[in-house]
Amino acid sequence: MSEMNPNPVNTGQHEPAPTVESPQRRRLIGAAGAAAGLAIAPGVMLIEVAHGRPEDQPASSAVRWGMLVDATKCATGCNDCVTACSTENGWTPIGESAHPKQAPQWIRKLELQDPLTQMETNLPMMCQHCAEPPCVDVCPTGASFKRADGIVLVNRHTCIGCRYCMMACPYKARSLVHEQLNDTQKADVPRGIGCVESCTFCVQKVDRGDGTTACVEACTASGHNALVFGDLNDPDSEISRKLREIPTKQVRADLNLNLGVRYHGI
Amino acid sequence: MASLMQRAVRAAFLAAALAWAGVSPAQADAPKPVIEKAVKGQQCVEDTEYMRKNHMKVLDLHRDKTVIEGIRTKKHSLKECINCHASEKTGSVAKSKDDFCVSCHTYAAVKIDCFECHSTKPQGPMTMHPLNAGTAHYKHKLVAGAKKPVTVDDMAKVAQ
């Protein structure tokens, strides 16, 4: 299991293939984890407290999920985060869509160039999971909502496809499903015609206790390590430590939306 | 979700139509719905009798709990209904007219849109989490043959 998922944030979750995890073995892993945590250089902890919550417990506001994008590490031409997102969540990437202008897009790569200095910046753009989300303010049915743990979602059971939220979003993060999907969806990620959708911070993975998202896994697997996902409310999480150490920005900070996604190097 | 009003209207309409045709529902020769036997498990998540009448309530309640609150219990999850009730022939609960979530509804003139979004086939993510949808059907197989409750550990063995 852990071979499939070389993400350091996640190693606390899946230790190398235990046949049956006895309590003794668990304690052993715990001890090994603590030792590994000490052994690593400051700022780089391999073992992170797992956020798996019991499946009968609701999401809690004690946690606020967030993401840090290090644009200085985000590579030109690399699209791995976008591909991983479309694979995990079952949306067709624009390049493969019959109607590219209408194709859904949960995350996209931006390549920017400073016209004066010619400096290039790469970054992924997606739902910024605002603490004060404009999409929630404008939704006439309450379908657009913020979950207790800060993840901004569309409840597709009550979404009527009016697209006010798409207009209200400063980040163009949302899209509407224009076409019948004909049972091609992933069992864990229902989505369908006439509803608005956007990045969910891989809510199905987070709730499973993976503690990470598909894009972060892919970025780490590619060796770029430009993305970190974690709990902003936990002062000891990798993301909180990084946010304390390096300068970061919110995109359109002037809007005062208190974003869950922060960028370094823009 | 049909309101009570819609349901009442539907029932009244059906009765009127049958009366007009000069038949009582008992005599009507409409083909009875096919109820495919669940592929997995020996019993439903609630009494069969209760589920027959109230499965929509069970599903409605659970979807709000899951989507809005993030509660992920398996018991009333639609994914689990599909794991047990998908037809052996089509591998789906809603592909052909005799599939589990279709036949009854056709008979009762109910139209549901759930499968515009929800996959109709049992399938799981690639990760082999012992109790996720991908391997849940093993659990039901185990339960069917087991003498004691199936634990996470038993499942972990199956997953390998």
Outline the structure in words.
The complex is a heterodimer of chains A (266) and B (160). Chain A has 266 residues and is of the alpha+beta class. Chain A has a single domain, classed as Alpha-Beta Plaits (2-Layer Sandwich). Chain A has seven helices and nine strands; from the N terminus they run αβαββαββαββααβαβ. In chain A, strands 8-1-9 form a three-stranded mixed beta sheet. A two-stranded antiparallel sheet of chain A has the order 2-3. In chain A, helix 2 packs across helix 6. The longest helix of chain A has 17 residues. The two termini of chain A are 36 Å apart. By secondary structure, chain B is an all-alpha fold. Chain B has two domains: 94 residues, no CATH class; 27 residues, no CATH class. Chain B is built from seven helices and no strands. In chain B, helix 3 crosses helix 6. Chain B is globular. Classes of the chains: A alpha+beta (266), B mainly alpha (160). Chains A and B meet through helix 5 of A and helix 2, helix 5 and helix 7 of B.
Please outline the helices and strands.
The complex is a heterodimer of chains A (about 270) and B (about 160).
Chain A: H1 23-39, E1 65-70, H2 80-89, E2 107-113, E3 120-126, H3 134-138, E4 144-146, E5 152-154, H4 164-168, E6 175-176, E7 196-197, H5 203-208, H6 214-221, E8 227-231, H7 238-245, E9 261-264
Helix pairs in contact in A: 2-6
Chain B: H1 4-20, H2 48-69, H3 78-85, H4 100-107, H5 114-117, H6 133-145, H7 152-158
